[in-house]
């Protein structure tokens, strides 16, 4: 699969000015492959942004929203046709160090980013998401930033942004000291659920609901039946369209034959007279 560097980061619905600022700063995670100055459309729905993301060959859509109780983040994977959606609650966040960023030229360095996972193994619920972001990041020999995704405990994670500083070691030829300096923004996220689909579909993971093997098998049967019924409806619709086209294709011929018949009758009458 070809690498897809672009990401789309949006706020959806009414949000506070503080949360809107977080959204704007989070776009800096993915520079240069992000619409930094994107203006959201008030009337647009999620499906509209999905189409926009696909148009720009984005690998993921990040959707920030707020409810009365929580700050929320949905990360929609678009790498597969069916898609997958990760739902997070944003427990805490802090803005980037603006003065530090400006003094070091952060934001003007359009040279991509590394992705560094910490304490996340193959059994982790978000391992697929981490691998997708990592495998679809823009990296070059000039890259000087890193997104760190660290598991804190249970289903809680830290997402933050670092600058990579390289310094030559005094008296050591061809040796470089590498340090990470956190520049933010940073978010403490709590995974709520994962759906196999774009903002809808089968729940493959839920923080609070755990299904028994029997329930999973029953759910699989229901989904299989729904898929079969959907294919049947699609086939029936295609058949109806085909019949309608055939019917419409015959109509001009009938009309033309009728006109020819009327012309012949008129000619016969003229000859009789």
Describe the overall structure.
InterPro entries: Brix, PPAN-like. Residues 5-200 form the Brix domain. Residues 228-241 have a biased composition (Basic and acidic residues). One of its GO terms (biological process) is ribosomal large subunit assembly. Residues 262-273 have a biased composition (Acidic residues). The chain is an alpha+beta fold and 273 residues long. The protein has two domains: 5-209, Rossmann fold (3-Layer(aba) Sandwich); 210-243. Helices cover 35% and strands 29% of the residues. It contains five helices and ten strands. The chain has helices spanning 17-26, 46-55, 98-103, 127-135, 213-272, and strands at 7-11, 60-66, 71-77, 84-94, 114-118, 145-153, 156-168, 176-182, 186-196, 202-206. Strands 1, 2, 3, 4, 5, 6, 7, 8, 9 and 10 form a ten-stranded mixed beta sheet that branches. The longest helix has 60 residues, at 213-272. The radius of gyration is 28 Å and the shape is globular. The N and C termini lie far apart (80 Å). 22% of the residues are buried. Residues 266-273 have low confidence and may be disordered.
CATH architectural arrangement of the largest domain: 3-Layer(aba) Sandwich
Mean pLDDT: 81
State the total count of DSSP E strands: 10
Question: Oligomeric form of this entry?
Answer: single chain
Largest sheet: 10 strands, mixed
In whole angstroms, the N-to-C terminal distance is: 80 Å
Computed over alpha carbons, the radius of gyration is 28 Å
Element order, helices and strands?
EHHEEEHEHEEEEEH
Tally of helical segments: 5
Instruction: State the share of residues found in helices, binned by percent.
Output: 25-40%
Residue stretches low in confidence (pLDDT < 50, at least 5 long) are 266-273
CATH superfamily of the largest domain: Brix domain
Structural category: alpha+beta
Organism: Nematocida parisii (strain ERTm3)
Protein name: Brix domain-containing protein
GO biological process, one term: rRNA processing
InterPro entries: Brix, PPAN-like
């Amino acid at each position: 699969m070809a690498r897809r560097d672009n990401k789309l980061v949006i706020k959806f619905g009414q949000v506070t000015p503080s949360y809107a600022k977080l959204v704007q700063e989070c776009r800096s995670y993915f520079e240069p492959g992000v619409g930094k100055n994107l203006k959201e459309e008030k009337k647009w729905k999620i499906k509209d942004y999905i189409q926009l993301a696909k148009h720009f060959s984005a690998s993921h859509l990040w959707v920030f929203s707020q409810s009365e109780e929580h700050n929320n983040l949905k990360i929609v994977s678009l790498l597969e046709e069916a898609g997958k959606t990760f739902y997070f609650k944003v427990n805490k966040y802090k803005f980037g160090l603006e003065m530090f960023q400006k003094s070091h030229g952060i934001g003007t360095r359009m040279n991509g980013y590394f992705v560094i996972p910490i304490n996340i193994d193959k059994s982790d619920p978000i391992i697929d998401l981490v691998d997708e972001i990592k495998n679809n990041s823009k990296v070059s020999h000039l890259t000087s930033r890193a997104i760190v995704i660290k598991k804190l405990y249970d289903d809680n994670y830290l997402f933050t942004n670092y600058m990579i500083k390289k310094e030559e070691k005094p008296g050591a030829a061809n040796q470089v000291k590498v340090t990470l300096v956190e520049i933010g923004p940073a978010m403490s996220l709590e995974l709520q659920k994962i759906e196999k689909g774009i903002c809808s579909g089968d729940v493959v993971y839920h923080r609070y609901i755990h299904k028994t093997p029997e329930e999973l098998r029953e759910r699989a049967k229901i989904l299989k039946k729904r898929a079969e019924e959907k294919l049947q409806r699609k086939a029936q619709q295609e058949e109806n369209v085909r019949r309608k086209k055939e019917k419409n294709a015959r109509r001009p011929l009938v009309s033309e034959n009728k006109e020819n018949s009327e012309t012949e009758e008129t000619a016969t009458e003229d000859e009789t007279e």
